[in-house]
Design brief:
heterodimer, A: mainly alpha, 6 helices, 41% helix, 0% strand, globular, B: alpha/beta, FAD/NAD(P)-binding domain, Cholesterol Oxidase, domain 2, 2 domains, 7-stranded mixed β-sheet, 12 helices, 17 strands
Chain lengths: 189, 545
């Protein structure tokens, strides 16, 4: 039985399938590595939990999961900053899961591209190959990072991600929290 | 607020300050009785509520924390249960009525007499209720007016009502317009949804601001008609009711002559306190109530309190769901406004030739929160990367789902009991669920999922897909575990909600249900509570408690 069957059933208001669990069910884990940490997250602030090589590796992974194109992606949303803050505070218990995920990523990089120094050092196509294989072969550890990325992208900005509400803007979501009809196209009189 | 000492023998102690407990507190205290309400969770207010998915979903801002209070689950009695959170309940004053979606459907006549009308499916424990719709009708009306429900009378599939709704329906949303479009094409009869949300200022509360965060969230405008902002303040205002939050009851105590004498609970400092009472009302929810009865076993009640029938914890139901989803051409913006604005009830009873027992109703909804939306993508499409991102950007506000709310059959072996080894953070045994869906559940959920997709297509969906057809195991709807009935051998409480085995013990919550309805249990939980309070008041005043 999948996780979704056990979470609040009313949240199964899926647009898209029954895999609508919150990332609770995707246990967080770790990633490893190195990369080209963009000058996106505020550099003045130190890192509380993640080590520099982890930061670089997570930056590369999250930038593939939510890429920057004509609209902002995980980098602009400061998703890695969100991960660090979460792991330092309410998501402390997820640190071992993060470690396990980062270790798994290391192994995948090594098995696909022997001699590669890190995920972040791979080319674009190579990174996508590794991530697709990871998703297909180890949903648990992949889900840890994927889940944290989604949450960091779209959560309330005070947790450190969704910087400048770029995630919400991407969705077209507006946090005004008070509306009057018409709400959408079809209920216009 | 009136305060009592634990040594005071109050008239009633009510366990649980939720949808039912709030009603009991208000009704009994207004009837002149002294009442102490013990609630596991804190007493928050609308000022504490926030539109924050992390707070709600990760930090258990309103709900039980499975780290502190685990559950276990297995499919068969021969299996060892594994740790798994299946009971999700709002753990604060107001209970589930704080975070519910607020669909407030009455159960129609047939719900109460399905065994007689349709027979008992093999392998199920379907039975008639010991009351009929006519017994409950005045109390449904009472819920609508006292708690506050918005709606429009006259739905051809609604049972007879004695009064119109006190407030007009909430404004129609794009989801509602699309349901009307699809339903009419297929010959169904869409109707404004009855919702326990104030559509206009009501009894000192604000009308709905259409913030869009109903499911799972507390209402910052006091427009959602939770007991937190309706029944509880009125109970306190009686001058006879004390609400005691952070009070986790671990045992119902036996006194003399087969009567209960009060309850023992852990206070906020985890110190044990005995609250004495002339009578005890359990409104703790369909998982916590049977757990408490089983934990209250004694020499007089070796199988658990009020459990001579062996039915305590059995017949658990969660409500079924058949869900399809679709993308439309234009913006729906489901993240604005209350969740549901139109429903169809044509299929509450399915045509006999289908060979499916029960029925259900539909709504269109797109209650998509930002994080929730980020996890959703059409089946078979990528969940990350460039294409996923483009799809999410294009479709987040153009998506909705067709939610079919269905019968789930009671089965005697679907049972909550006490896990023999697992303990919670207070050292109490945790509820263990043994559960396997009846085969009818799978068929009915699939039927509603498939018909739902047809409705979406008829409404003009650009793309549609099947999303969920069970199994429905766990969740916030916790029903049937102390069923009501006439026969003490096959039920736990009588139609007055009085335990067959204990004259001064009453059980009033979702556990009293005999059948599941078609989702939307809170309306009936509260109607039962108003009725129970009436009955109990009469018994008490006649000196027969």
């Amino acid at each position: 039985m999948s996780d979704s069957e056990f979470t609040r059933r009313d949240f199964l208001v899926a647009v898209a399938g029954a895999s609508v669990t919150t990332w609770l069910s995707a246990s967080w884990s770790d990633l490893n590595a190195a990369g080209t940490f963009a000058a996106s997250a505020s550099q003045q602030e130190g890192w509380q939990v993640l080590k520099p090589d982890q930061v670089r590796e997570l930056d590369a992974v999250t930038a593939q999961l939510v890429p920057t194109d004509s609209t902002p992606g995980a980098r602009e949303a400061h998703v890695v900053r969100f991960m660090d803050r979460s792991l330092a505070t309410y998501a402390k218990a997820q640190r071992p899961a993060f470690d396990a995920a980062l270790k798994k990523l290391d192994e995948l990089v090594a098995s696909h591209y022997p001699g590669a120094t890190s995920f972040a050092a791979l080319g674009d196509a190579e990174q996508i190959t590794v991530l697709k294989d990871w998703e297909a072969t180890d949903g648990q550890t992949f889900g840890t990072i994927h889940g944290a990325t989604i949450v960091g992208m779209f959560s309330n900005p005070e947790y450190g991600g969704n910087y400048n509400k770029v995630g919400w803007k991407l969705l077209g979501f507006n946090d005004q929290f008070s509306w009057a009809p018409p709400f959408g196209y079809y209920d216009r009189a | 607020m009136k305060r009592y000492r634990p040594s005071d023998e109050v008239d009633f102690v009510v366990v649980g300050a939720g949808a039912a407990g709030g009603v009991m507190a208000r009704e009994l205290s207004q009837a002149g009785f002294s009442v102490v309400v013990l609630e596991q969770g804190p007493w928050l207010s609308e000022k504490d509520f926030k539109h924050d998915e992390i707070w709600i979903n990760e930090l258990n801002g309103l709900t039980n924390d499975h780290e502190l209070q685990p559950n276990t689950l297995r499919q068969n009695e021969s299996d060892k249960a594994q740790k798994r959170g299946w009971a999700s309940y709002c753990r604060l004053v107001g209970g589930g009525s704080v975070h519910f979606t607020a669909n407030f459907w009455r159960f129609p006549e047939l719900e109460f007499e399905q065994a007689t009308r349709f027979g008992i499916p093999d392998g199920s424990s379907v039975a008639d209720w010991p009351i009929r719709y006519a017994d409950l009708e005045p109390y449904y009306t009472k819920v609508e007016w006292e708690v506050g429900v918005s709606g429009l009378a006259g739905n051809p599939f609604e049972p007879p009502r004695s009064k119109p709704y006190p407030m007009p329906p909430l404004p129609i949303k794009s989801e509602g317009v699309l349901l009307e479009r699809g339903a009419r094409k297929l010959g169904l009869h869409p109707w404004p949804a009855p919702m326990a949300i104030a559509s206009q200022p009501y009894r000192g509360r604000s009308g709905c601001l259409a913030c869009g965060f109903c499911i799972g969230f507390g209402c910052e405008a006091r427009a959602k008609s939770s007991t937190l902002v309706t029944m509880i303040p009125e109970a306190v205002a009686s001058g006879r009711c004390e609400i005691r939050p952070l009070s986790y009851v671990r045992k119902v105590e036996m006194g003399q002559n087969g009567r209960v004498s009060g309850v023992t609970y852990f206070d906020k400092d985890r110190k044990e306190v005995l609250q004495r009472a002339k009578a005890v009302v359990l409104s703790a929810n369909g998982a916590e109530t049977p757990k408490l009865l089983l934990m209250s076993a004694s020499s007089a009640h070796p199988q658990g309190l009020a459990n001579s029938s062996g039915q305590v914890g059995r017949n658990i139901m969660f409500n079924g769901a058949g869900i399809s989803a679709a993308i439309f051409e234009h913006e729906i913006n489901g993240w604005k406004g209350a969740v549901v604005s139109r429903v169809t009830w044509d299929q509450y009873e399915l045509p006999k030739p289908l060979g499916i027992y029960g029925g259900g109703g539909f709504d269109f909804r797109s209650a998509i929160t930002p994080i929730g939306g980020g996890f959703q993508s059409p089946p078979g499409s990528p969940r990350w990367g460039r294409d996923w991102k483009r799809g999410l950007k294009d479709n987040f506000s153009k998506s909705l789902s067709c939610f079919g709310h269905t019968t789930q059959l009671p089965v005697a072996s679907n049972q909550v009991d006490l896990d023999p080894t697992e303990k919670d953070a207070w050292g109490l045994p945790v509820p263990r669920l043994t559960f396997k869906e009846h085969e009818n559940d799978g068929r009915i959920q699939r039927w509603f999922m498939e018909r739902g997709r047809e409705l979406l297509d008829a409404a003009g969906a650009v793309d549609s897909f099947e999303a969920f057809a069970g199994p429905s195991v766990g969740g916030p709807h916790l029903l049937g575990t102390c069923r009501m009935g006439r026969d003490p051998k096959t039920s736990v409480v009588n139609s007055d909600h009085r335990a067959h085995d204990v004259p001064n013990l009453f059980i009033v919550d979702g556990s009293s249900f005999v059948t599941s309805g078609r989702g939307q249990p809170t309306m009936t939980i509260q109607a039962l509570a108003f009725r129970a309070a009436d009955r109990i008041t009469k018994l008490a005043k006649a000196g027969t408690l």
